């Protein structure tokens, strides 16, 4: 079973940039599509971005399109979310997730807090 650990969250001013990373265990990382989700206080968890197994295809929520970039390094079992032009409304706990092919995104990390100050 793959395990995911996020890192790189923190406090940043509006307009700034931050990159969050997700390290995956196991030998089959390249077999999984990966995604980033976020959950703000009092709100439901929402989709942010996803990337195909090969990394060729990416998808973004409209709210982050043009500002965030998802990428992966299958040799290092890593997935990244580069976040630029951050806004206070981007404040949330960010989770990475793996779609192992059984029930959608079924493996989740513990999350990393991103706080954007105005």
């Amino acid at each position: 079973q793959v395990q995911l650990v996020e890192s790189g969250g923190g406090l940043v001013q509006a307009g700034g940039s931050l990159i969050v990373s997700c390290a995956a265990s196991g030998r089959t990382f390249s077999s999984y599509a990966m995604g980033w989700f976020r959950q703000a206080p009092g709100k439901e968890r929402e989709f942010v971005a996803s990337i195909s197994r090969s990394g060729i295809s990416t998808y973004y929520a409209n709210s982050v399109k043009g500002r965030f970039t998802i990428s992966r390094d299958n040799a290092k079992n890593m997935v990244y979310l580069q976040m630029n032009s951050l806004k206070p409304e981007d404040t949330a706990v960010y989770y990475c997730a793996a779609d192992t092919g059984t029930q959608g995104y079924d493996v989740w990390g513990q999350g990393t807090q991103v706080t954007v100050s105005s």
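The longest strand covers residues 92-99. Residues 2 and 28 are 8 Å apart (CA to CA).
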